[in-house]
Amino acid sequence: MANTPSNMLPLGTIAPNFSLPDTITDQIYSLGQIKGEKGTLIMFICNHCPFVKHVNPIITQMAEIYQARGISFIAISSNDVIKYPQDGPELMKQTALAEGYTFPYLFDELQEVARAYEAACTPDFYLFDSNLRLVYRGQLDDSRPGNGIPLTGLDLGNALESILNNKSVNPAQKPSLGCNIKWK
Length: 184
Fold this sequence. Notes:
The protein is of the alpha+beta class. The protein has helices spanning 31-34, 50-67, 89-99, 112-117, 154-164; strands at residues 4-5, 19-21, 28-30, 39-44, 71-77, 105-107, 121-122, 124-129, 134-138, 177-180.
């Protein structure tokens, strides 16, 4: 299990646009179609990573809460499916259904979106305001597989609440930590 940190894209960066297939609905979605009214959370995840498996329950729970409040949740998998077939689109759909994802789970086959966002690990979280300006990138919370710290979603949750309450997001942000993106 690799411990790869986020690259920490500069705050204020405008979200790079994309059009990717959703493995759940088989539709192609652009960022403009699925961005949130009040904010957009883009998560780079995958099926097999133990760090993602660890946080799946809380991201699913947070999505239900925050989607109802105007924040769009978008998951993207960019892993090389030749070397990691368990991260392929059909298994992405199975994972999304099994985990109860209420958000698109997009497949970045060419890895262009991951490169545009400078994504490094799974999970890697990017929160954008209503103007698609980056206000948070980093960890969900301090919990990691096996460290005994309970999942709370505190760090990301605080950023989400700041957006919803028209407050500045604390710029002191810790990188996420997880498995490296499996590049081709």
